[in-house]
Amino acid sequence: MSKGEHLGELEELILLTVGSLYGEAYGVSIMDEIKAQSGRELNVSAVHAVLKRLETKGYLKSYMGGATQERGGRRKRYFTLTQAGKLTLDQSMSYRMKLYNNIPDISFNFSA
Amino acid sequence: MTNPPKWSMKFLQWYCNPDLLEEIEGDIYELFDRRVAEKGVGFAKRRFAWDVLRFCRWTNIKRTQSINHRSNSIIMLKNYINVGFRNVTRNWLTSGINIFGLALALGCLITLFIFIDMQQNMDKYHENSANIYQVVNRVKNDNVGVEKWSDSPIQLGPSMVENHPQVADMFRIEFQSANVKYNDKVFNEFLAFVDPGYLKNLDYDVLSGNHNSLEIRGHLVISYNTAEKYFADEDPVGKQLTLKFGHGRIKTFTVGAVLDKYRYNTSIRYNFMLPMKNFEDLGFADKLDWSYLTDATFVVLKDGTNLVQLESELSEYVAVQNSFDPEWAIESFELISLNELAQKNFEITSSVAGSSHPAGQVALGVVAILLTILACFNYMNISVASSSKRLKEIALRKVMGSDRKGIATQFLVENFMQVLFALILGSLISYFLFMPGFNTMLPFTVPFRFVSIPMMMLFFLGILLFVGIISSLYPALYVSKFQPVSIFKGKTRFGSRNLFSKVLLGFQLTFAFITVVASFLFSDNALHLKNQEWGYDGEDVLSVRVNDASQFVALREFAKENPHVRDMVGSSGNFTQDFDIMTVNHLETEVRSVVLGTSPQYPGLMDMKLKEGRAINSLLDDAANREILINEEFVTKMDWEEPLGKKITIDSAKYTVVGIVENFKYHVWFGYEQMLPAIVKVAPEEQYQYAIFKSTAGNLDAMDEEVKSKWLEIAPNDPYDRVIQANAYDEYLNEMDSNVIIISFISLIAIILASLGLFGLLSFNIQSRLKEFSVRKILGAPVIEIIRVAAKQYLWIVLIGFFIGAPIGYFLIDSMIQNIYPDPKPTSWFPFVLAITIMVSMLLVSIIGQLLKAVNVNPAENLRNE
User: Fold this and answer.
1) pTM of the complete model
2) Which of A71, B471, B620, B709 has the greatest number of beta carbons closer than 10 A?
3) Which of B6, B16, B27 to mutate against chain A (most A CBs within 10 Å)?
4) In total, how many domains does chain A have?
């Protein structure tokens, strides 16, 4: 994994959220979901910036949705995972799991 | 329904990239609605404004969409250059004309710039040049107002160093002349006595010897050229030179140092520099107090000296000076920086920095810029016309989605490419053709060099941008404007019918007519002045300068025996070399007249043409009855009907007119000088300064050699100073030739540019009208008719150009000629007719091929529709 493809913490979080919101991921919904799941409050502009960065890295792709009555008739830009994005998430998850599983049980023995 | 704050919204819309606006706006709008419902309007509005500010970051502001777009524009640029290159090679003829025309003009501009650059940077290489000033006398002259004199009191420099702490050093320059002898080499030389500060403060490079030689009495410093002249391969340092000064004293000097070759931008340059102390010793003047003026005084000031204050302090010397020399009262002293001296030298009487009036530079500069602008016009015209062939390409690009900017860029890139070509070609033309040509006409050599590299870069970049923009902006903007629909329909046609291009062509032709008429009138006058009769026969005549009577007598003895000498006389004056201009009287009338003192045989030897009366009879010439000859101008001036026998008083001695001779050219620069009344009188033998020899036909060179070898015997310490009379005017004649060459050259380039312009426009016009000519031919139009139709509109432009240009050219050059030459040739019709004939035939030659193309169209080929 070269440096350019490295995922930041927030990037990984948002990538995961986009995956989990499958088909319904746009700026505000992603922000809401992150707050709901982790309690973390983000400014929507930060979400936008990360989304754009992920898109140029090729982990996300986007399309404009149809017009709706809400938000003054403005369209939403929906994001979905690309194959590359999914792959990166898988790798990231797998090495985390691997490291996690390597932790010996003894270290959980907090009473000692 | 509440709305978010308007100003925030506006701000967002203003900074945000339009491509991103909708999604960003949507998201914060959604949040706003939610917050209004949950926490109230005020909170929502505040958070809205905050969000807008948070979104204000560079990625949302920048308009171009990152990576893809950038690489795309590089590809397009490459594409433009490619297309441009193909276009140049496909239309090689017009592109060639374009580039060549522009290159010619740029070559002139570059050449001239180098010249002016050199002039502007004269002497600036001396490290301390900003602190070196010449002190000039401002002298009131009743006739011309205040004059600035380079001559200044010889005591001024030392007094300034002594009394003014700001003055660090000074050096004075005093001119004398002497016969300089080394072994058998004797030449008359121009000498400069200078103070030691001369070499200390001016950064001349010393090639060999002691840098402080000027402080040693009896040493001198010579220039590189002088070292070659006297010593050839020897080392000059330590050698002895014997100098015989004008007042007869002889002194031997030792060569202390040799300077390296002077840099090309050096205005103060001497061949012999002697210590000022020696000047004081040699006793040229009775006393060297304030009444003696030396030729120049320079002072070296300390950094940060207040000039105005120093100048006012100098006023204390004005009274001192004026008490010694009340005749030429000084008003004040003025300090002129060495940096400006070369530019101001024309203001200073007998300046030490040479003298060239900047008017010539300015005139040539204006002409070069005009030529460049004409070439730009040419370029524009042909560029617009040639895009008429590419209308469909433009339309297609527009249909494919290219915007106007894209098309304009394409044309700009193509044109800049061609201008760059022209610039390179122009530099080459200047380097290999113009500069060498220019240098042959100057008394010194200007190298193809810029004083500073940044200046050079700035100049070339400036030309590229200026010419590039001036010549391609119009075509680029004009061509990109067309609507594809009207192009495909065949409605848009341009180039030939365009008023703008006709006006430009009109300018070119007008300018060409101005220069052609001016050049022919100027040349006609120059040739007339050049070929005027001298009024005597200088063929086979040699004049040798003698220093005393014994030398003359020895030469006369020699002449009696030498078979090559046909005749030999003495004279105190000689045409082109020595004559007086003084006021003589006839009764009460004063006449300013040239007086030439000769021997009675001199007019005969020179073959002066006697119009009336008789020659001076040497036997009758005695104190009671002195005879003179006068020239025709004298008679005209005095309006005498019966001039023979009239009495004229010269220097209180009375003379009788016995003969009238044709006007003769006594002055080397006779074209520039007013022809004055002239008198030939007899001078006593003791005053003879010249031995005039006439050889038997064709043996001048042999005689010259023999006289020279005799001279070495008679006067080994004096230079053999002789003039071959037939060549006496060469300097003047060469300058006349150079002037004619320069002005003809300018007009030649103007004609070439105008012809190229006409050719370019006409050829495109005919190209686009081939179908029309074909139809005319089928319908039976005769050849003449087709030519008339094809050339008619251009004939008008040529006529207008002529009727505006010819009178302007006439008035310009006529006033110039009247100013320069006191006695010009009256204007005749001949040069006009010649100028117009040449101009019209040049134009005809340039378009005849194109007209024939129109006449010889093959209707079958042009009307066939495939």
Assistant:
1) 0.65
2) B471
3) B27
4) 1
